[in-house]
Amino acid sequence: MSPDDPCPCGRGVRYAECCGPLHAGVQAPTAERLMRSRFSAFSLGLGDYLFASWARATRPDRAELDPDPDTRWLRLFIEETEAGGPFDESGIVVFTAIARGPEGRIELRERSRFVREGNDRRWVYLDGEIG
After folding, report:
1. Which positions fall inside the YchJ-like middle NTF2-like domain (predicted)?
2. Which of 4, 93, 113, 124 is the most exposed place for a label (fewest CB within 10 A)?
């Protein structure tokens, strides 16, 4: 992906101004921005980022986080957010992600929980309810 390409997360800005810096190590300012950067990481096949942005207490083994190369993540729709702002300790993001895989269209709807973790109080994905 070129830094000048539109960001996969759908915010309507260039990758270099959106998820690119987060993928390079800049902290997400909100739970929603972390959610968007994780969608972009799935889209771009960035398993290391997915692992690093998952809460230590709930994350799976690193080997389980490599995105399926046969699945193309296409669109992200943020439906609702609760808290998750710059001064919050937790937040919820409800989203729908659209993908295409070998079997056809995939639509994933999830209510994701995010928390702050570590000395730097970095936002991380805790868990989610699919449905």
Report:
1. 30-128
2. 4
